[in-house]
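Q: How would the structure tokens look for this protein?
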Amino acid sequence: MTALDERWNIRPEHFWLRGIRPEQPVDFDEKHAMWNVYGYAEASEILGDPATYTSDTAHLFPVDIDPALSEGDVTHLDPPEHTKLRALISSAFTPKVVGDLEPRIREITEELLDEVAGADRFDFVEALAFPLPVIVIAELLGLPRSDREMLKQLTYQITENKSPFDLIDNSEVGDGNLRTLDDQMRQLHGYLHEHASERRRAPREDLLTRLVQAEVDGRRLTDGEVANFGTIVMFAGHITTTMLLGSTVLCLDAYPEHAARVRADRTLVPSTIEESLRFLSPFPATSRATTTEVNIGGQVVPADQMLVVWLAAANRDGRQFADADVFDPTRDPNPHIAFSRGNHYCVGAPLARLEGRVALNVLLDRYSAMHTDPDSPPVFFPSMDLAGARILPLRVA
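A: Here is the predicted structure in token form.
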């Protein structure tokens, strides 16, 4: 049993957070007709071999995806098409682009915390963890400051509904969630489509303009592709950070001896963030499909089968990590796969790490103590494929 499980009501499906080990690294889920992959070695093999394990899984879901909402969607592409299109998104997250954002990230963090200055209790997610990355990404894309609240609310709603598990849920609840998600995604897509069209008429110095002007194999991207790219950037650049910030605070609260050590030695901040990513991985799972019959984890899996790769469970695999259920900010090496691996490694990872480092240092500078409220425990995102706090009341001093 981990301190996290003892302290909070972690959903039972995330059994690895309770120190429970699966009987085998790969098993078959008859109810959903898919294979679960829990082992680190097995997950790494799958993520590193796009020829055998494709990201093009849409045909295995019992729903039709609107082509307008999937045009240029790199998350479901394999090389070489994926390589060409990902390069465009990656231009927003180069080391120089990300590094140059550090002063602005610190400024935004200070401004957001100024809004709760003097309060001895506030919702950490509402005050900082959610708005910080939304503001950073909106500024990168060149979106109006006046639209921040709308984007914050819309992306929050999409985050709560955007679960691949709803795609394999034929119940009325699953269907209802999909209809709601479809409406929300259309709203965000239409908003970004409008801005893409405007950039063609009046270019600016922002990421949307760079995407509009970019060429792939001698052709310009359509406004629909640019809108979908913008959507991916919005989520790659901020949802991970939101959960990372909240999870790091939760881990330090659960392990006060480590919190004191990190506070005294700020060189431990980066490794603390990495251990938080391993220990409470924000996105527990990703999916792939087999292109041929394979033998993995002692199981023979036929071609054209859905695989759910549980990144979070792999990050607790004792075959890879010594004392896997121990939160250790000094863990080195720490080859976690919280950001996935291979050609679909999270494009927003460098920005998430930077925002985490800057924000944690500012928090430690501002407050001599930060604790969860025993009378108002954190509320986690309801989706199976998210592991982070949606509401996180903090007491500070």
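The first strand starts at residue 26 and ends at 29.

Residues 339 and 346 are 5 Å apart (CA to CA).

Upvote if useful.
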